[in-house]
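Reply to thread "Modeling small-molecule complexes from scratch"

Following up on the discussion above, here's a worked example others can learn from. I took a protein sequence and the SMILES for adenosine-5'-triphosphate and predicted the complex. Inputs first:
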Amino acid sequence: MSARTRWFIAFAALLALLPVLPVPEFWITQLNYIGLNAIVSLGLVLLTGVAGLTSFGQAAFVGIGAYTAATLAVNVGLSPWLTLFIGLGITVLVALVLAAVTLRMSGHYLPLATIAWALSLYYTMSNMEMLGKYDGILGVPALTLFGTSLGSGRSYFYVIWVIALLAALAVIHLLDSRTGRAIRALKGGTTMAEAMGISTYRYKVQIFVLAAMLASVSGWLFAHFQRTVNPSPFSLSKGIEYLFMAVLGGVGHVWGAFTGAALVKLTEDQLKDWLPRLIGTSGNYEVIVFGLVLVVVLKYASEGLWPHIERLFARFLPEKRRVRDWADAAPLPERSKPQPGELLLEVDRVRKQFGGLVAVNDVTFQIRAGEIIGLIGPNGAGKSTTFNLISGVLSKTSGRVSFRGEDVSALASREIARRGMSRTFQHVKMLPDMTVLENVALGGYLRSSAGMAQAMLRLDRDEERRLFKEAERQLERIGMKDQMHELAGNLALGPARLMEIARALCTDPALLLLDEPAAGLRHKEKQALAAVLRQLKAEGMSLLLVEHDMDFVMNLTDRIVVMEFGTKLIEGTPAEVQDSPEVRAAYLGTEH
Ligand SMILES: Nc1ncnc2c1ncn2[C@@H]1O[C@H](COP(=O)(O)OP(=O)(O)OP(=O)(O)O)[C@@H](O)[C@H]1O
Protein backbone atom coordinates (compact mmCIF):
# COMPACT_ATOMS: atom_id res chain seq x y z
CA MET A 1 0.00 0.00 0.00
CA SER A 2 1.46 3.37 -0.98
CA ALA A 3 1.96 6.20 1.51
CA ARG A 4 -0.71 8.20 -0.28
CA THR A 5 -3.25 5.40 0.04
CA ARG A 6 -2.49 5.19 3.78
CA TRP A 7 -3.04 8.94 4.11
CA PHE A 8 -6.30 8.66 2.23
CA ILE A 9 -7.52 5.89 4.57
CA ALA A 10 -6.41 7.90 7.62
CA PHE A 11 -8.24 11.00 6.31
CA ALA A 12 -11.40 8.98 5.64
CA ALA A 13 -11.18 7.38 9.11
CA LEU A 14 -10.76 10.78 10.76
CA LEU A 15 -13.80 12.10 8.91
CA ALA A 16 -15.79 9.02 9.92
CA LEU A 17 -14.97 9.69 13.58
CA LEU A 18 -15.76 13.41 13.64
CA PRO A 19 -19.58 13.21 13.96
CA VAL A 20 -19.36 10.81 16.92
CA LEU A 21 -16.83 12.99 18.72
CA PRO A 22 -18.02 16.05 20.67
CA VAL A 23 -17.37 18.35 17.71
CA PRO A 24 -19.71 21.39 17.83
CA GLU A 25 -22.60 21.33 15.34
CA PHE A 26 -21.23 24.51 13.72
CA TRP A 27 -18.11 22.70 12.54
CA ILE A 28 -20.05 19.73 11.25
CA THR A 29 -22.15 22.15 9.20
CA GLN A 30 -18.99 23.86 7.93
CA LEU A 31 -17.55 20.52 6.88
CA ASN A 32 -20.80 19.66 5.14
CA TYR A 33 -20.56 22.83 3.06
CA ILE A 34 -16.89 22.15 2.35
CA GLY A 35 -17.79 18.67 1.08
CA LEU A 36 -20.59 20.07 -1.13
CA ASN A 37 -18.28 22.71 -2.61
CA ALA A 38 -15.40 20.27 -3.06
CA ILE A 39 -17.58 17.99 -5.23
CA VAL A 40 -18.21 20.90 -7.62
CA SER A 41 -14.54 22.02 -7.56
CA LEU A 42 -13.51 18.46 -8.35
CA GLY A 43 -15.34 18.80 -11.65
CA LEU A 44 -13.41 22.00 -12.29
CA VAL A 45 -10.12 20.24 -11.55
CA LEU A 46 -10.92 17.92 -14.44
CA LEU A 47 -12.43 20.52 -16.71
CA THR A 48 -10.14 23.50 -16.12
CA GLY A 49 -7.05 22.10 -14.44
CA VAL A 50 -6.58 18.95 -16.48
CA ALA A 51 -8.36 19.59 -19.77
CA GLY A 52 -7.75 23.37 -19.87
CA LEU A 53 -11.41 24.39 -20.37
CA THR A 54 -12.40 27.28 -18.13
CA SER A 55 -15.99 27.35 -16.92
CA PHE A 56 -17.66 30.05 -14.82
CA GLY A 57 -20.97 28.28 -15.05
CA GLN A 58 -20.80 25.23 -12.77
CA ALA A 59 -23.22 26.78 -10.24
CA ALA A 60 -25.96 26.54 -12.86
CA PHE A 61 -25.52 22.74 -12.97
CA VAL A 62 -25.66 22.69 -9.15
CA GLY A 63 -28.97 24.52 -9.58
CA ILE A 64 -30.30 21.95 -12.02
CA GLY A 65 -29.57 19.15 -9.54
CA ALA A 66 -31.02 21.10 -6.62
CA TYR A 67 -34.19 22.30 -8.34
CA THR A 68 -34.92 18.89 -9.87
CA ALA A 69 -34.60 17.29 -6.44
CA ALA A 70 -36.70 19.96 -4.72
CA THR A 71 -39.54 20.24 -7.22
CA LEU A 72 -39.92 16.50 -7.80
CA ALA A 73 -39.86 15.75 -4.07
CA VAL A 74 -42.17 18.61 -3.01
CA ASN A 75 -44.55 18.89 -5.98
CA VAL A 76 -44.59 15.28 -7.27
CA GLY A 77 -43.61 13.35 -4.14
CA LEU A 78 -40.91 11.28 -5.81
CA SER A 79 -38.24 9.50 -3.77
CA PRO A 80 -35.04 11.57 -3.50
CA TRP A 81 -33.04 8.55 -4.60
CA LEU A 82 -34.99 8.62 -7.85
CA THR A 83 -34.69 12.37 -8.32
CA LEU A 84 -30.92 12.06 -8.09
CA PHE A 85 -30.90 10.10 -11.34
CA ILE A 86 -33.57 12.26 -12.98
CA GLY A 87 -31.47 15.33 -12.08
CA LEU A 88 -28.39 13.69 -13.54
CA GLY A 89 -30.32 12.84 -16.71
CA ILE A 90 -31.49 16.45 -17.14
CA THR A 91 -27.97 17.70 -16.39
CA VAL A 92 -26.47 15.41 -19.02
CA LEU A 93 -28.99 16.60 -21.61
CA VAL A 94 -28.40 20.30 -20.85
CA ALA A 95 -24.62 19.77 -20.74
CA LEU A 96 -24.67 17.97 -24.09
CA VAL A 97 -26.60 20.79 -25.73
CA LEU A 98 -24.27 23.43 -24.24
CA ALA A 99 -21.22 21.37 -25.19
CA ALA A 100 -22.41 21.10 -28.79
CA VAL A 101 -22.81 24.86 -28.96
CA THR A 102 -19.76 26.03 -27.01
CA LEU A 103 -16.97 23.45 -26.85
CA ARG A 104 -15.69 24.03 -30.36
CA MET A 105 -14.91 27.58 -29.31
CA SER A 106 -11.36 28.34 -28.30
CA GLY A 107 -9.41 31.04 -26.50
CA HIS A 108 -11.48 33.53 -24.55
CA TYR A 109 -14.72 32.60 -26.29
CA LEU A 110 -15.34 29.48 -24.25
CA PRO A 111 -15.18 31.17 -20.80
CA LEU A 112 -17.38 33.95 -22.18
CA ALA A 113 -19.85 31.39 -23.43
CA THR A 114 -19.95 29.72 -20.00
CA ILE A 115 -20.80 33.11 -18.46
CA ALA A 116 -23.58 33.52 -21.00
CA TRP A 117 -25.21 30.18 -20.33
CA ALA A 118 -24.68 30.50 -16.56
CA LEU A 119 -26.69 33.74 -16.67
CA SER A 120 -29.35 32.18 -18.91
CA LEU A 121 -29.84 29.14 -16.69
CA TYR A 122 -29.88 31.29 -13.56
CA TYR A 123 -32.57 33.61 -14.90
CA THR A 124 -34.55 30.66 -16.27
CA MET A 125 -34.60 29.08 -12.80
CA SER A 126 -35.43 32.41 -11.17
CA ASN A 127 -38.39 33.14 -13.41
CA MET A 128 -40.15 29.80 -13.65
CA GLU A 129 -43.48 29.79 -11.85
CA MET A 130 -43.27 26.07 -11.11
CA LEU A 131 -39.88 26.60 -9.39
CA GLY A 132 -41.26 29.32 -7.14
CA LYS A 133 -39.46 32.16 -8.92
CA TYR A 134 -37.09 34.09 -6.59
CA ASP A 135 -38.74 32.63 -3.47
CA GLY A 136 -37.82 29.13 -4.53
CA ILE A 137 -39.18 25.89 -3.06
CA LEU A 138 -39.66 25.28 0.65
CA GLY A 139 -40.17 22.10 2.60
CA VAL A 140 -37.80 19.78 0.78
CA PRO A 141 -37.88 16.49 2.71
CA ALA A 142 -34.85 15.02 4.43
CA LEU A 143 -33.16 12.00 2.88
CA THR A 144 -34.01 8.65 4.37
CA LEU A 145 -32.00 5.48 4.02
CA PHE A 146 -33.55 2.11 4.93
CA GLY A 147 -36.20 3.93 6.93
CA THR A 148 -33.67 6.03 8.88
CA SER A 149 -33.89 9.80 8.49
CA LEU A 150 -30.68 11.56 7.51
CA GLY A 151 -32.12 14.91 8.56
CA SER A 152 -29.49 15.81 11.16
CA GLY A 153 -26.28 17.54 10.14
CA ARG A 154 -24.25 14.71 11.65
CA SER A 155 -25.91 11.91 9.72
CA TYR A 156 -25.94 13.97 6.54
CA PHE A 157 -22.21 14.53 6.99
CA TYR A 158 -21.68 10.86 6.13
CA VAL A 159 -23.77 11.10 2.95
CA ILE A 160 -21.86 14.16 1.71
CA TRP A 161 -18.41 12.90 2.56
CA VAL A 162 -18.89 9.34 1.32
CA ILE A 163 -19.93 10.84 -2.03
CA ALA A 164 -17.11 13.42 -1.99
CA LEU A 165 -14.41 10.86 -1.23
CA LEU A 166 -15.77 8.33 -3.73
CA ALA A 167 -15.80 11.09 -6.35
CA ALA A 168 -12.20 12.00 -5.48
CA LEU A 169 -11.16 8.37 -5.75
CA ALA A 170 -12.94 8.00 -9.09
CA VAL A 171 -11.19 11.12 -10.44
CA ILE A 172 -7.79 9.90 -9.19
CA HIS A 173 -8.39 6.59 -10.96
CA LEU A 174 -9.57 8.35 -14.08
CA LEU A 175 -6.47 10.52 -14.29
CA ASP A 176 -4.26 7.45 -14.03
CA SER A 177 -5.71 5.67 -17.05
CA ARG A 178 -5.78 5.55 -20.83
CA THR A 179 -8.69 8.00 -20.84
CA GLY A 180 -6.98 10.19 -18.25
CA ARG A 181 -3.87 10.47 -20.38
CA ALA A 182 -6.05 11.39 -23.35
CA ILE A 183 -7.78 14.10 -21.30
CA ARG A 184 -4.46 15.43 -20.03
CA ALA A 185 -3.31 15.66 -23.65
CA LEU A 186 -6.12 18.18 -24.37
CA LYS A 187 -4.38 20.98 -22.50
CA GLY A 188 -1.34 21.41 -24.72
CA GLY A 189 -3.39 21.91 -27.90
CA THR A 190 -5.05 19.20 -29.90
CA THR A 191 -2.50 18.39 -32.65
CA MET A 192 -0.48 15.77 -30.77
CA ALA A 193 -3.52 14.14 -29.17
CA GLU A 194 -5.27 13.88 -32.53
CA ALA A 195 -2.10 12.43 -34.08
CA MET A 196 -2.27 9.67 -31.45
CA GLY A 197 -5.80 8.87 -32.58
CA ILE A 198 -7.64 10.74 -29.82
CA SER A 199 -10.89 12.50 -30.66
CA THR A 200 -10.23 15.65 -28.67
CA TYR A 201 -13.74 17.01 -29.14
CA ARG A 202 -15.30 13.82 -27.80
CA TYR A 203 -13.17 14.00 -24.67
CA LYS A 204 -13.93 17.66 -24.16
CA VAL A 205 -17.62 16.79 -24.24
CA GLN A 206 -17.17 13.84 -21.88
CA ILE A 207 -15.25 15.90 -19.33
CA PHE A 208 -17.72 18.75 -19.59
CA VAL A 209 -20.61 16.37 -18.94
CA LEU A 210 -18.77 14.67 -16.07
CA ALA A 211 -18.00 18.01 -14.38
CA ALA A 212 -21.66 19.00 -14.81
CA MET A 213 -22.76 15.69 -13.26
CA LEU A 214 -20.56 16.25 -10.21
CA ALA A 215 -22.08 19.72 -9.83
CA SER A 216 -25.56 18.26 -10.18
CA VAL A 217 -24.93 15.66 -7.46
CA SER A 218 -23.74 18.46 -5.19
CA GLY A 219 -26.98 20.33 -5.97
CA TRP A 220 -29.09 17.30 -5.08
CA LEU A 221 -27.20 16.95 -1.80
CA PHE A 222 -27.58 20.69 -1.17
CA ALA A 223 -31.36 20.63 -1.67
CA HIS A 224 -31.85 17.87 0.92
CA PHE A 225 -29.37 19.49 3.28
CA GLN A 226 -30.81 23.01 3.20
CA ARG A 227 -34.38 21.65 2.83
CA THR A 228 -35.15 24.73 0.78
CA VAL A 229 -33.98 25.88 -2.64
CA ASN A 230 -33.90 29.39 -4.09
CA PRO A 231 -31.90 30.81 -7.02
CA SER A 232 -29.18 32.79 -5.19
CA PRO A 233 -26.71 29.91 -4.56
CA PHE A 234 -26.71 29.14 -8.28
CA SER A 235 -25.80 32.57 -9.58
CA LEU A 236 -22.85 33.52 -11.74
CA SER A 237 -20.99 34.85 -8.69
CA LYS A 238 -21.24 31.43 -7.06
CA GLY A 239 -19.92 29.93 -10.32
CA ILE A 240 -16.93 32.27 -10.07
CA GLU A 241 -16.49 31.25 -6.44
CA TYR A 242 -16.27 27.56 -7.41
CA LEU A 243 -13.60 28.41 -9.94
CA PHE A 244 -11.85 30.48 -7.31
CA MET A 245 -11.82 27.49 -4.93
CA ALA A 246 -10.32 25.24 -7.59
CA VAL A 247 -7.67 27.77 -8.61
CA LEU A 248 -6.77 28.66 -5.04
CA GLY A 249 -6.49 25.01 -4.01
CA GLY A 250 -4.59 23.93 -7.12
CA VAL A 251 -6.69 23.52 -10.19
CA GLY A 252 -4.72 20.59 -11.58
CA HIS A 253 -4.90 18.55 -8.38
CA VAL A 254 -7.70 16.44 -6.94
CA TRP A 255 -6.87 17.44 -3.35
CA GLY A 256 -6.58 21.02 -4.50
CA ALA A 257 -10.37 21.00 -4.88
CA PHE A 258 -10.75 20.06 -1.21
CA THR A 259 -8.05 22.49 -0.05
CA GLY A 260 -9.67 25.34 -1.98
CA ALA A 261 -13.18 24.47 -0.81
CA ALA A 262 -12.06 24.35 2.83
CA LEU A 263 -10.03 27.56 2.68
CA VAL A 264 -12.73 29.58 0.97
CA LYS A 265 -15.51 28.39 3.26
CA LEU A 266 -13.58 28.87 6.47
CA THR A 267 -12.07 32.26 5.62
CA GLU A 268 -15.35 33.48 4.14
CA ASP A 269 -17.10 32.91 7.45
CA GLN A 270 -14.31 34.49 9.47
CA LEU A 271 -14.18 37.50 7.16
CA LYS A 272 -17.97 37.90 7.26
CA ASP A 273 -17.64 38.07 11.00
CA TRP A 274 -14.58 40.26 11.35
CA LEU A 275 -14.62 42.68 8.46
CA PRO A 276 -17.87 44.53 9.34
CA ARG A 277 -16.58 44.87 12.90
CA LEU A 278 -13.28 46.25 11.68
CA ILE A 279 -14.78 48.57 9.11
CA GLY A 280 -17.79 49.53 11.15
CA THR A 281 -20.44 48.93 8.47
CA SER A 282 -21.91 45.74 7.07
CA GLY A 283 -21.48 44.58 3.47
CA ASN A 284 -19.96 41.85 1.33
CA TYR A 285 -16.39 42.91 2.05
CA GLU A 286 -15.13 39.33 1.95
CA VAL A 287 -15.55 39.41 -1.84
CA ILE A 288 -13.00 42.24 -2.06
CA VAL A 289 -10.53 40.28 0.08
CA PHE A 290 -11.04 37.16 -2.04
CA GLY A 291 -10.37 39.16 -5.19
CA LEU A 292 -7.09 40.41 -3.75
CA VAL A 293 -6.10 36.95 -2.50
CA LEU A 294 -6.76 35.46 -5.93
CA VAL A 295 -4.54 38.05 -7.61
CA VAL A 296 -1.74 37.31 -5.11
CA VAL A 297 -2.13 33.54 -5.52
CA LEU A 298 -2.12 33.79 -9.31
CA LYS A 299 1.02 35.92 -9.17
CA TYR A 300 3.03 33.95 -6.61
CA ALA A 301 1.55 30.43 -6.63
CA SER A 302 -0.11 30.08 -10.01
CA GLU A 303 -0.45 26.33 -9.54
CA GLY A 304 -2.49 26.93 -6.38
CA LEU A 305 -1.75 25.88 -2.82
CA TRP A 306 -1.86 22.09 -2.99
CA PRO A 307 1.50 21.66 -4.80
CA HIS A 308 3.09 23.78 -2.05
CA ILE A 309 1.46 21.66 0.64
CA GLU A 310 2.78 18.57 -1.15
CA ARG A 311 6.29 20.02 -1.20
CA LEU A 312 6.06 21.01 2.45
CA PHE A 313 5.08 17.48 3.44
CA ALA A 314 7.21 15.75 0.79
CA ARG A 315 8.68 13.49 3.46
CA PHE A 316 5.24 12.10 4.32
CA LEU A 317 3.77 12.32 0.82
CA PRO A 318 6.41 10.75 -1.44
CA GLU A 319 5.84 10.84 -5.20
CA LYS A 320 3.94 7.74 -6.21
CA ARG A 321 6.28 5.66 -8.36
CA ARG A 322 4.55 3.31 -10.74
CA VAL A 323 4.99 -0.30 -9.68
CA ARG A 324 6.35 -2.39 -12.54
CA ASP A 325 3.61 -5.02 -12.52
CA TRP A 326 3.34 -5.67 -16.25
CA ALA A 327 6.11 -8.24 -16.81
CA ASP A 328 3.67 -11.03 -17.65
CA ALA A 329 1.01 -8.87 -19.37
CA ALA A 330 -0.20 -10.02 -22.78
CA PRO A 331 1.06 -8.03 -25.79
CA LEU A 332 -1.23 -5.46 -27.38
CA PRO A 333 -2.84 -6.34 -30.71
CA GLU A 334 -0.74 -5.66 -33.81
CA ARG A 335 -1.90 -4.57 -37.26
CA SER A 336 -1.09 -6.53 -40.41
CA LYS A 337 1.98 -5.01 -42.02
CA PRO A 338 2.53 -4.35 -45.74
CA GLN A 339 4.76 -6.68 -47.73
CA PRO A 340 8.23 -5.32 -48.55
CA GLY A 341 8.12 -3.35 -51.79
CA GLU A 342 4.35 -2.84 -51.64
CA LEU A 343 3.24 0.70 -52.57
CA LEU A 344 2.55 2.29 -49.19
CA LEU A 345 2.17 6.02 -49.62
CA GLU A 346 1.30 7.90 -52.75
CA VAL A 347 1.55 11.69 -52.63
CA ASP A 348 -0.03 12.96 -55.83
CA ARG A 349 0.26 16.63 -56.86
CA VAL A 350 -0.34 17.82 -53.31
CA ARG A 351 -0.70 21.56 -52.95
CA LYS A 352 -1.07 23.97 -50.04
CA GLN A 353 -1.64 27.68 -50.30
CA PHE A 354 -1.62 30.06 -47.34
CA GLY A 355 -3.37 33.04 -48.90
CA GLY A 356 -1.10 34.08 -51.76
CA LEU A 357 1.83 31.91 -50.62
CA VAL A 358 2.18 28.51 -52.25
CA ALA A 359 3.90 26.58 -49.45
CA VAL A 360 3.65 23.21 -51.24
CA ASN A 361 3.39 23.28 -55.00
CA ASP A 362 1.93 20.11 -56.58
CA VAL A 363 4.45 17.77 -54.95
CA THR A 364 4.42 14.11 -56.02
CA PHE A 365 6.37 11.15 -54.63
CA GLN A 366 5.84 7.62 -53.41
CA ILE A 367 7.05 5.42 -50.60
CA ARG A 368 7.25 1.64 -50.80
CA ALA A 369 7.15 -0.60 -47.74
CA GLY A 370 10.57 -1.05 -46.18
CA GLU A 371 12.06 2.16 -47.55
CA ILE A 372 13.56 5.10 -45.69
CA ILE A 373 12.87 8.28 -47.62
CA GLY A 374 14.40 11.64 -46.74
CA LEU A 375 12.65 14.94 -47.39
CA ILE A 376 15.19 17.74 -47.48
CA GLY A 377 15.36 21.35 -48.54
CA PRO A 378 16.40 24.76 -47.26
CA ASN A 379 14.44 26.54 -44.51
CA GLY A 380 10.94 27.41 -45.63
CA ALA A 381 11.04 24.92 -48.53
CA GLY A 382 7.73 23.42 -47.43
CA LYS A 383 8.89 20.16 -45.83
CA SER A 384 6.95 20.45 -42.58
CA THR A 385 3.87 21.60 -44.46
CA THR A 386 4.15 18.53 -46.72
CA PHE A 387 4.40 16.40 -43.57
CA ASN A 388 1.31 18.02 -42.13
CA LEU A 389 -0.59 17.48 -45.38
CA ILE A 390 0.32 13.78 -45.45
CA SER A 391 -0.53 13.21 -41.77
CA GLY A 392 -3.81 15.14 -41.99
CA VAL A 393 -2.83 17.95 -39.62
CA LEU A 394 -3.42 20.46 -42.43
CA SER A 395 -6.06 20.28 -45.14
CA LYS A 396 -4.87 20.26 -48.73
CA THR A 397 -5.71 22.97 -51.23
CA SER A 398 -5.63 20.26 -53.90
CA GLY A 399 -4.04 16.91 -54.65
CA ARG A 400 -4.43 13.46 -53.22
CA VAL A 401 -2.70 11.27 -50.64
CA SER A 402 -3.24 7.50 -50.70
CA PHE A 403 -2.09 5.24 -47.89
CA ARG A 404 -2.10 1.46 -48.32
CA GLY A 405 -4.34 1.86 -51.38
CA GLU A 406 -6.91 4.06 -49.63
CA ASP A 407 -7.52 7.72 -50.40
CA VAL A 408 -6.84 9.47 -47.08
CA SER A 409 -6.82 13.01 -48.51
CA ALA A 410 -9.93 14.11 -46.64
CA LEU A 411 -9.37 12.23 -43.39
CA ALA A 412 -8.62 13.83 -40.03
CA SER A 413 -5.20 13.09 -38.56
CA ARG A 414 -6.63 10.71 -35.96
CA GLU A 415 -8.24 8.65 -38.72
CA ILE A 416 -4.96 8.54 -40.61
CA ALA A 417 -3.23 7.45 -37.38
CA ARG A 418 -5.82 4.68 -37.05
CA ARG A 419 -4.75 3.39 -40.47
CA GLY A 420 -1.14 3.03 -39.36
CA MET A 421 0.67 6.30 -40.02
CA SER A 422 2.36 7.83 -37.00
CA ARG A 423 4.50 10.90 -36.60
CA THR A 424 6.76 13.00 -34.44
CA PHE A 425 6.87 16.80 -34.39
CA GLN A 426 9.47 19.38 -35.31
CA HIS A 427 8.84 21.05 -31.94
CA VAL A 428 8.48 18.21 -29.45
CA LYS A 429 4.92 17.84 -28.23
CA MET A 430 4.61 16.01 -24.95
CA LEU A 431 2.94 16.12 -21.55
CA PRO A 432 5.71 17.44 -19.31
CA ASP A 433 4.07 16.53 -16.00
CA MET A 434 3.63 12.89 -16.95
CA THR A 435 6.45 10.33 -16.87
CA VAL A 436 8.28 9.22 -19.99
CA LEU A 437 6.52 5.87 -19.75
CA GLU A 438 3.07 7.48 -19.54
CA ASN A 439 3.86 9.73 -22.50
CA VAL A 440 4.87 6.74 -24.58
CA ALA A 441 1.80 4.79 -23.42
CA LEU A 442 -0.30 7.55 -24.99
CA GLY A 443 0.86 6.11 -28.31
CA GLY A 444 -0.97 2.87 -27.49
CA TYR A 445 -4.30 4.70 -27.29
CA LEU A 446 -5.74 3.20 -30.47
CA ARG A 447 -4.62 -0.30 -29.51
CA SER A 448 -6.68 -0.22 -26.32
CA SER A 449 -10.28 0.55 -25.50
CA ALA A 450 -11.03 1.14 -21.80
CA GLY A 451 -13.35 4.13 -21.37
CA MET A 452 -14.05 6.61 -18.62
CA ALA A 453 -16.38 4.45 -16.52
CA GLN A 454 -14.01 1.48 -16.61
CA ALA A 455 -11.16 3.74 -15.52
CA MET A 456 -13.10 5.26 -12.63
CA LEU A 457 -14.12 1.82 -11.39
CA ARG A 458 -10.55 0.52 -11.85
CA LEU A 459 -11.69 -2.16 -14.28
CA ASP A 460 -8.95 -1.22 -16.74
CA ARG A 461 -5.91 -2.56 -14.90
CA ASP A 462 -5.30 -5.50 -17.21
CA GLU A 463 -5.26 -3.29 -20.26
CA GLU A 464 -3.11 -0.70 -18.47
CA ARG A 465 -0.49 -3.35 -17.76
CA ARG A 466 -0.51 -4.30 -21.44
CA LEU A 467 -0.09 -0.65 -22.42
CA PHE A 468 2.82 -0.10 -20.06
CA LYS A 469 4.49 -3.29 -21.16
CA GLU A 470 4.31 -2.09 -24.75
CA ALA A 471 5.51 1.41 -23.79
CA GLU A 472 8.45 -0.08 -21.91
CA ARG A 473 9.27 -2.32 -24.91
CA GLN A 474 9.35 0.68 -27.22
CA LEU A 475 11.50 2.65 -24.79
CA GLU A 476 13.89 -0.27 -24.61
CA ARG A 477 13.98 -0.35 -28.41
CA ILE A 478 15.02 3.29 -28.44
CA GLY A 479 17.49 2.87 -25.57
CA MET A 480 15.56 4.89 -22.98
CA LYS A 481 14.22 2.21 -20.66
CA ASP A 482 16.26 3.54 -17.74
CA GLN A 483 14.51 6.89 -17.95
CA MET A 484 10.97 5.58 -18.05
CA HIS A 485 10.00 6.86 -14.60
CA GLU A 486 11.42 10.35 -15.15
CA LEU A 487 9.12 13.28 -15.71
CA ALA A 488 9.06 13.99 -19.43
CA GLY A 489 9.39 17.71 -18.74
CA ASN A 490 12.83 17.09 -17.22
CA LEU A 491 14.25 15.54 -20.40
CA ALA A 492 16.82 17.34 -22.53
CA LEU A 493 15.84 17.93 -26.16
CA GLY A 494 17.62 14.85 -27.54
CA PRO A 495 15.97 12.29 -25.25
CA ALA A 496 12.65 14.12 -25.65
CA ARG A 497 12.86 13.55 -29.42
CA LEU A 498 13.65 9.90 -28.84
CA MET A 499 10.68 9.64 -26.51
CA GLU A 500 8.46 10.97 -29.30
CA ILE A 501 9.76 8.24 -31.58
CA ALA A 502 9.00 5.62 -28.93
CA ARG A 503 5.49 7.08 -28.61
CA ALA A 504 5.00 6.91 -32.36
CA LEU A 505 6.27 3.31 -32.37
CA CYS A 506 3.79 2.48 -29.63
CA THR A 507 1.01 3.12 -32.16
CA ASP A 508 2.31 0.07 -34.12
CA PRO A 509 2.68 2.09 -37.33
CA ALA A 510 3.16 0.84 -40.87
CA LEU A 511 4.72 4.19 -41.79
CA LEU A 512 6.65 6.41 -39.44
CA LEU A 513 6.97 10.13 -40.22
CA LEU A 514 9.83 11.76 -38.35
CA ASP A 515 10.11 15.54 -38.39
CA GLU A 516 13.80 16.41 -37.84
CA PRO A 517 14.48 13.49 -35.48
CA ALA A 518 18.21 14.20 -35.17
CA ALA A 519 17.89 17.89 -34.30
CA GLY A 520 19.36 18.58 -30.88
CA LEU A 521 20.98 15.13 -30.58
CA ARG A 522 24.68 14.72 -29.80
CA HIS A 523 26.91 12.80 -32.21
CA LYS A 524 26.66 9.55 -30.25
CA GLU A 525 22.91 9.92 -29.87
CA LYS A 526 22.60 10.47 -33.62
CA GLN A 527 24.56 7.29 -34.29
CA ALA A 528 22.33 5.40 -31.87
CA LEU A 529 19.25 6.87 -33.53
CA ALA A 530 20.50 5.90 -37.00
CA ALA A 531 21.09 2.38 -35.71
CA VAL A 532 17.55 2.25 -34.33
CA LEU A 533 16.08 3.52 -37.60
CA ARG A 534 18.09 0.93 -39.59
CA GLN A 535 16.87 -1.74 -37.20
CA LEU A 536 13.28 -0.58 -37.76
CA LYS A 537 13.82 -0.73 -41.52
CA ALA A 538 15.22 -4.25 -41.15
CA GLU A 539 12.01 -5.18 -39.35
CA GLY A 540 10.00 -3.94 -42.33
CA MET A 541 9.17 -0.44 -41.10
CA SER A 542 8.91 2.35 -43.63
CA LEU A 543 10.09 5.82 -42.75
CA LEU A 544 9.78 9.30 -44.10
CA LEU A 545 12.06 11.81 -42.44
CA VAL A 546 12.53 15.51 -42.73
CA GLU A 547 16.07 16.32 -41.78
CA HIS A 548 18.62 19.11 -41.85
CA ASP A 549 21.63 17.02 -40.90
CA MET A 550 22.92 16.01 -44.36
CA ASP A 551 25.32 13.31 -43.13
CA PHE A 552 22.52 11.71 -41.20
CA VAL A 553 20.22 11.65 -44.25
CA MET A 554 22.87 10.59 -46.75
CA ASN A 555 23.97 7.61 -44.68
CA LEU A 556 20.54 6.42 -43.80
CA THR A 557 18.04 6.88 -46.59
CA ASP A 558 17.24 4.84 -49.71
CA ARG A 559 15.93 7.82 -51.62
CA ILE A 560 15.74 11.55 -51.09
CA VAL A 561 13.15 14.08 -52.20
CA VAL A 562 14.58 17.59 -52.38
CA MET A 563 12.23 20.57 -52.09
CA GLU A 564 12.84 24.22 -52.76
CA PHE A 565 10.29 27.06 -52.57
CA GLY A 566 7.50 24.50 -52.10
CA THR A 567 8.37 22.61 -55.27
CA LYS A 568 10.02 19.21 -55.69
CA LEU A 569 13.40 19.89 -57.18
CA ILE A 570 14.70 16.36 -57.62
CA GLU A 571 14.21 12.85 -56.32
CA GLY A 572 16.93 10.18 -56.28
CA THR A 573 19.37 8.09 -54.32
CA PRO A 574 21.62 9.92 -51.84
CA ALA A 575 24.48 9.64 -54.36
CA GLU A 576 22.37 11.08 -57.19
CA VAL A 577 21.21 13.93 -54.98
CA GLN A 578 24.71 14.66 -53.80
CA ASP A 579 25.95 14.78 -57.40
CA SER A 580 23.11 16.96 -58.66
CA PRO A 581 24.30 20.44 -59.65
CA GLU A 582 20.77 21.79 -59.09
CA VAL A 583 20.78 20.56 -55.51
CA ARG A 584 24.28 21.89 -54.94
CA ALA A 585 23.14 25.26 -56.13
CA ALA A 586 19.85 25.31 -54.29
CA TYR A 587 20.61 23.53 -51.09
CA LEU A 588 23.88 21.75 -50.52
CA GLY A 589 25.76 24.73 -51.83
CA THR A 590 24.29 26.88 -49.11
CA GLU A 591 24.65 24.21 -46.45
CA HIS A 592 28.18 22.94 -47.01
N1 LIG B 1 0.22 28.30 -41.04
C1 LIG B 1 0.91 29.00 -41.95
N2 LIG B 1 0.44 30.16 -42.42
C2 LIG B 1 1.12 30.88 -43.35
N3 LIG B 1 2.28 30.49 -43.87
C3 LIG B 1 2.81 29.34 -43.46
C4 LIG B 1 2.16 28.53 -42.47
N4 LIG B 1 2.92 27.43 -42.24
C5 LIG B 1 3.99 27.55 -43.05
N5 LIG B 1 3.93 28.68 -43.78
C6 LIG B 1 4.90 29.13 -44.76
O1 LIG B 1 5.05 28.09 -45.71
C7 LIG B 1 6.40 27.99 -46.11
C8 LIG B 1 6.89 26.58 -45.89
O2 LIG B 1 7.02 26.38 -44.49
P1 LIG B 1 7.49 24.99 -43.86
O3 LIG B 1 7.48 25.16 -42.37
O4 LIG B 1 6.70 23.89 -44.44
O5 LIG B 1 8.98 24.90 -44.39
P2 LIG B 1 10.12 23.90 -43.95
O6 LIG B 1 10.74 23.43 -45.20
O7 LIG B 1 9.58 22.87 -43.05
O8 LIG B 1 11.09 24.86 -43.19
P3 LIG B 1 11.94 24.59 -41.86
O9 LIG B 1 13.03 23.69 -42.25
O10 LIG B 1 12.43 25.95 -41.50
O11 LIG B 1 11.02 24.02 -40.87
C9 LIG B 1 7.18 29.04 -45.34
O12 LIG B 1 7.32 30.17 -46.16
C10 LIG B 1 6.29 29.32 -44.16
O13 LIG B 1 6.47 30.66 -43.73
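What I'd highlight from this example: Residues 431-508 form one domain. The chain has 23 helices and twelve strands. Questions welcome below.
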